Amino acid sequence: MHTTSHRTEPSPPLDAATALRAWEIPPALVVALAVTALVYARGWRRLHVRRPGRVSARRLVAFLAGLGALLVALTSPLDTLADRSLPIHMAQHLVLLVVVPPLLLAGAPIVPLLRGLPSGRMRTALGAVVALADRVAHPVVGVVALSLATWGWHVPAAFELALRDRAWHVAEHASFLGAGLLFWWPVVQPWPSRARWPRWAIVPYLLLADVQNSALAALLIFADRVFYPTYGVGPAALADQALAGLLMWVPMSLAYLVPAAVVTWRLLSPAERDEGRPVGPPLEALR
To answer: Which pLDDT tens digit goes with each residue over 208-243?
Structure first.
C-alpha cells in the first residue's frame, strides 16, 4: 500500500514492462494469508476424511483462489500503480468487491477454519465472530453496505483522501472487502449458515446492486469534468475516467447479472441441485 501527494502534472504513460515489475509484497500480508490457507486446508482435510461428501475439493480450490485474488489485489500493479492510473485503481476495487468475497464464501470457510484451529480460545473467538457475521449478514445489510462503500469512496473528497493517506487507503480496501463479504453472503449462503430470505428474493437483490453500480458507472463515463484531479486534468484524464467507469459498468454488471440468471434458472428447474452445497447442522452445533 502506498501514500501519494497531489499531482500537478500527469505521470508518464505506463508501459507493459513497468506494469509487470510493479509488485510490492509485504511479508506480513503473505504470512497472514499463508497461515489462513494452512488453517483452512487443515480443517478441510479433517472434514473431508471424516465426511467425504460434506465439503468437496471445489470448495478448497475456491477458497485458495480467493486468497490468491486478495494477494494479487493488494500486492500487484493493481495496488502499486493505483495512484497513477484510475482504470487500474477501479480494477482493484472490482477484485475486492466482486471477485475475492464470492470465492472465499464459495469455499464454505466456516467449518474448515473452525476445525483447522486447535481447541481453545482462538477457536472460541473465531466461532463467536462467525456467529456474529451470520446474524449481521442480512440481505438488507448487504445491499446497504455495498452501496455505501461503492458510492461513499467514489465521492471525490474521500477518493482523493485515500490516495494521499495510507491509513485511509487501508480503510478503503477493508471497507470494500467487508462490504463485499456482507453482500455476497446471502447469494452464496456458505454452509452451514441459514438463508434469511426465500431464494427468489436474491434475484431482485442482485438486480438492485447492478442498478446502483450502473448509475455510478454512467456518472463517470458521461461526466464532462474530471472528478479526481490526482490523476491529472484535461482530455486524457477525462478519457481515463470514462474507461474506469466502463470497467465498473461491464465487468461488475456481469458479476451481478450472471448469478441472477443462474439463480433464476435454478428456480425454474426444481430438479436442478447445487451439488457443491452440503446440508449440515446449524452454526451453534459446530462451535
So the answer is: 999 999 999 999 999 989 999 988 888 899 999 999
Query: Do the domain assignments include residue 287?
Result: no
> How large is the angle between the packed helices 202-222 and 139-153, nearest 10 degrees?
10
35-72 pLDDT per residue, tens:
999 999 999 998 888 876 678 889 999 999 999 999 99
How many C-beta neighbours within 10 Å does residue 279 have?
7
pLDDT in tens, 159-170: 999 988 889 999
Distance of CA 283 to the CA centre of its chain: 23
Assigned C-alpha cell, 223: 461526466
Residue for grid cell 434469511 = 196
Which one, of 84, 112, 43, 114, lies nearest residue 244 by Cα? 84
Tell me the H-state helices in the chain.
16-21, 27-50, 57-75, 77-80, 86-94, 100-106, 110-116, 121-136, 139-153, 156-164, 166-188, 202-222, 235-267
Per-residue pLDDT at 275? 40
Residue 60 located in a structural domain: yes
Encode burial over 250-277: b for 16+ CB neighbours within 10 A, e otherwise: eebbebbeebbeebeeeeeeeeeeeeee
* Residue 125: burial class (beta carbons within 10 Å; 0-12, 13-18, 19+): exposed
Per-residue model confidence (pLDDT) at position 47: 86
Least confidently predicted of 110-124, 223-237, 245-259:
110-124
**Any domain includes 285:** no
The pTM of this model reads 0.84
Domain count, the chain: 1
In a domain, 132, yes or no: yes
Domain housing 189: 20-272
